[in-house]
Amino acid sequence: MPEEKILFTHRRVITAALVAALVPTVSCATADSTSGYRLERLVTGTAMHTINGLALAPDGSVLTANLAGETISALDPATGQINSLVPQRDGRSDDLVVAPSGEIFWTDPLAGAVKGRDRDGRIRTVADNLPGVNSIAFDRSRQHLYAGQTFFADGLWEIDPRAGVAPRLVARDLGSLNAFAFGPDGMIYGPLGKRGQVARIDPRTGVASTVAAGFRQPVSVRFDSRDRLYALDGATGQLIRIDPATGAKDVVATLPAGADNMVIGPGDHAYVSNMADSAVTEVDLGTGARTTLTSSPLAFPQDIAFDGNTLYVADSTALRTVDPGTGVVTELARRLSSELEFPSGISVTAQHIVLTSELIGTVQVLDRATGEPAGEVHGLDNPSDAVELADGSLVVSEPANGRVLRVVDGRPRVLAENLGAPAGLALTPRGVVLAAEVTGGRLLQIDPTSGEVTEIARGLGAPRAVAVAPDGSSVVLDAGGRRVVSVNSRGEQQVLADGLAVGHLTQPYARSGGVAVGADGTVFVAADRENSVYTIRRAGR
Hints:
Blueprint: E1 5-6, E2 9-10, E3 13-14, H1 16-22, E4 29-32, E5 37-43, E6 54-56, E7 62-66, E8 71-75, E9 82-86, E10 95-98, E11 104-108, E12 113-117, E13 123-127, E14 133-138, E15 145-149, E16 155-159, E17 168-172, E18 181-182, E19 188-192, E20 197-201, E21 208-212, E22 218-223, E23 229-233, E24 238-242, E25 249-254, E26 259-265, E27 269-274, E28 279-284, E29 290-294, E30 303-306, E31 311-314, E32 318-322, E33 329-334, E34 345-348, E35 352-357, E36 362-367, E37 373-377, E38 385-388, E39 394-398, E40 403-408, E41 411-416, E42 422-427, E43 433-437, E44 442-446, E45 453-457, E46 463-468, E47 474-478, E48 483-487, E49 493-498, E50 514-517, E51 523-527, E52 532-538
Antiparallel strand pairs: 1-2, 3-33, 4-5, 5-52, 6-7, 7-8, 8-9, 10-11, 11-12, 12-13, 14-15, 15-16, 16-17, 18-19, 19-20, 20-21, 22-23, 23-24, 24-25, 26-27, 27-28, 28-29, 30-31, 31-32, 32-33, 34-35, 35-36, 36-37, 38-39, 39-40, 40-41, 42-43, 43-44, 44-45, 46-47, 47-48, 48-49, 50-51, 51-52
């Protein structure tokens, strides 16, 4: 399908028929005679979240790392079966490698740690104090382990797998070394994202030289069984064979943008991950033929918002919309091929889309008409959600700090504090801010001018998100109880649906899943555990 520019990346439309065909369907509609509401699936996804790094296990399965979803899983390439190996939060990972012993090692960029899992399942920290540690690989002897830093720092380290010796700095300021591999000459070959290059690096001295240049966003470098060199460009999706002697490049296959890593298995078949599609694709390096092993129309819907006509999805590594009537998914932007961060919270106004990134600590404001950036706030501490007031200022929640901020002209100040863990936010028609307070199970009302806080309701479990219904009631997603609860102006509660596939991220508080309400009272739920969207309507409607 030819690419069509929209916002600041390409657009893809996934039909309802294709959505339904991607995974086996389960019961699509249930009626709760107690609540009088009917639950229906609008978009069907998979249980695999935003796939990053890949490794091959001795049994032939493909191990997948996941940063946003904080899990490590095993994918059977023959059957497509998925098994969880390391749950969140220990499974938060960007890249991983398997030792000859069968032990798995992975990087956690946010914790700045390299971790390992023994064959008996015991997890331990191998190295820490390495902010942004990202890529990881053994040398060809399978005795020496190396890890590279990107984003938060820029370095290459040798790591003792037994944690008996402190990490050894090999080099600094290489240019953001991503997923690398060792060549037959004993040198490291790796992508330098900041320089758009593939480089050769001496693991003893750190001296680097350019092998090939002209990449938009190189993310992974590997060798096949004949020691031919390959690079993956995440921005273009191109899988490229490189002549190390001349730097000449030959495109083997072109995959969707957002490709994040690859590993080459027996028979010189590459397995390529795509975080925006939560996909693993097998590529025959001889012919370029591709087979998709797993994929999902929504990669990890962490939050949703509704503007009266369209449902907007903060899809962790992409920005997407869903047609509320048909379930058709349309992509507006994705990571690597655009300036999009990792959106985990979302709200919309008539003019803007407001995206919050917990991972990066930012709020991005986009012009809805053009897709161009209309503002950005940096340096926030794990922000959960943000809403825009009528004067253009923002209200942002920081649950880790128990506070809500107001941002005017890019400058944050504390609006209210000592709130527990305020997560999802919503604006009432009067311009008052509602906050779902996770740890106390409360729904709070906050005056955006004075910061005065009023408790509307408590006993709501672990409320992650809140939306305002047409009748003025509040609709709360209790991620801990896996239910949706309506709260009226008197604080009275009614459960609209329960047993939902929500609450994937639970530590240190509920951090994923969303709720929105349409003009007719239809409730939309981002079922983050299975990457789906559900509707809740009155029975008989």
